[in-house]
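Give me the fold.
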Amino acid sequence: MFPLNPFAAPLQERGRITEEYIRRTIAGMDLAGPYVVIAPHTALLHTAAEHGARQQGLSLTVFETPVVFGSPENDPVKYAYALSVPQGTPSHLTAMAGLLKLLEDPGFADICDTHDPRRIWDSICLHMM
C-alpha cells in the first residue's frame, strides 16, 4: 500500500489529526482493501474519529499522475481527500453532505485540474460552508 503521510500531512501539521489517525487509516485500507475509493478517480482517506481526529479538517491532493488503489470500478485515483471530523461533532454529517455536493459538481474536477489553490479553496468553501 502507498504511504498516506503526504496526503494527510496538512491535517497533521495543523494538529487536526494524530499519527495514530494516519496509521489506522493505512491499516484499514490494508485490511479492507480500497474502500476509501468512493467515486470514479476519487478517494476519501479516513478512519474512525476515536483514532485521533482532533479537529475538523479536509485536505485535497490532486495527482499529476493518477494512482491505482485497487478499485476495479473507480481506479485510477486522481483526487485524494483526507477528512477529519472529531467524535461527537454534529458537523460530521454536514461535512459529508458538503463533500458529496462537491463531488456531484461536474465543474469541480476541472477546477482541481487547474492546480490553482485559491480557485480550489473558493470552490470548496462555496460547497461546504
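The first strand starts at residue 37 and ends at 39.
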